[in-house]
Amino acid sequence: MTSETDELQQARECQASGRFIDAICHCEQILAVEPDHFAALHLCGLAHLDNAQATEAVALLERASLAQSGDLDVRFDLGVALQSAGRYVDAIQIYNQVLAAKPAHANAWSKLAAAHKRLQQWEASAAAYRRALIFSPDPAFIACQLGYVLLEQKKWLEADEAFHQSLTQTPNQPEAHNGRGLALKGARRYTEAVDALQAALALRPRYLEALFNLGTTLQALERWAEAIETYKRALAIAPHSLDVLSNLGNALASARDFASAEIIHRKVLAQKPNHTPYHNNLGNALLGLDRFADAIACFEHALLLQPGSAEITCNLGNAHLSQNHLDEAIAFYDQALALDPRLRRADFCRSLVLLLKGKLKEAFPK
Asked: pLDDT for 101-137, tens place per residue?
């Protein structure tokens, strides 16, 4: 007959070698005899957690925590299980208890930050990552995670600093180079952003997110041919990505290849027919082909899907302006500006129409 000590040792060996089901079976042998056996409860909970059975792990780790309420390791593991089960508020409460007893617990700070991040509590997440940086043996990883949280807050320069700190510690991190590219793009330092994103792709050539971000940055620089090539590289990895296809269509339209843009946008719309931006994008491509009636139909359909869109209303004005329907155009520009007074494109086009109508004073009021 196998002793309790032998069962526990075998369970630990199974857990260490990734044989989680076997580890659970050995622990259950002990728990069948001694239901409150702390070590068996703890180890069985960890085995369930590693076997992607978070709910079972929570139940076992809660029992282990009741058996020895002062054990910080089991409390921390309970927090991890709760987080894996999607119970982020409960996990945060547990991590805070652990940190109250042990303020230098780096993993608890890191997990706390990640839980706040999942709840989109960006300030709390950033604060916890900064605390984790003080104690963590892996500051490069923590700084990278902090950078992505700062991106969510649009704190571009602080994010760039965090990614730079991460890369100083560990230079060959594609994720940190990608994040730095996003931070620099947000700060409108587009050329530097391109360099950062290309560094990410040099380390991981099939990094889809970095390719997509590089494409959008090249579009911001009006480097259309390079953007088109980048999106084609992304499509070789993810041929059914509607976001990549849509951006490729927009880049083709910007390069004045409106016929190819129309084909791409129709392909996208076939997959997602009620997505407003795709109708708007197709309308712009058709406008470039001088197919005014078709373009107007697209914009009107987009406006039915998203009433009150200043951008789409402005595009309707553009369609009428292209046909020299000046009164209709200015009416749509007025509507667009009523919806969004900061829409500079509508304001510019409205002034242009007034100039064409010979109304100089109205075009440029004091």
From this structure: 999 999 999 999 999 999 999 999 999 999 999 999 8
Tokens linked to 66: 């009741």
Q: Per residue, what are the HEC states of the chain?
A: CCCHHHHHHHHHHHHHCCCHHHHHHHHHHHHHHCCCCHHHHHHHHHHHHHCCCHHHHHHHHHHHHHHCCCCHHHHHHHHHHHHHCCCHHHHHHHHHHHHHHCCCCHHHHHHHHHHHHHCCCHHHHHHHHHHHHHHCCCHHHHHHHHHHHHHHCCCHHHHHHHHHHHHHHCCCCHHHHHHHHHHHHHCCCHHHHHHHHHHHHHHCCCCHHHHHHHHHHHHHCCCHHHHHHHHHHHHHHCCCCHHHHHHHHHHHHHCCCHHHHHHHHHHHHHHCCCCHHHHHHHHHHHHHCCCHHHHHHHHHHHHHHCCCCHHHHHHHHHHHHHCCCHHHHHHHHHHHHHHCCCCHHHHHHHHHHHHHCCCHHHHCCC
CB atoms within 10 A of CB 195: 14
Number of neighbours of residue 67 by Cβ within 10 angstroms: 17
What residue has token string 């900064």?
A: 130
Q: What is the pLDDT of residue 366?
A: 60
- Look up the pTM and report it: 0.88
Positive or negative: CA dihedral 338, 340, 344, 345: negative
| Residues 231, 260: Cα–Cα separation, whole Å | 14
Dist. CA 341–CA 338, nearest whole Å: 6
Task: Name the CA dihedral angle for 125, 128, 133, 136, rounded to a multiple of 10 degrees.
Answer: -110
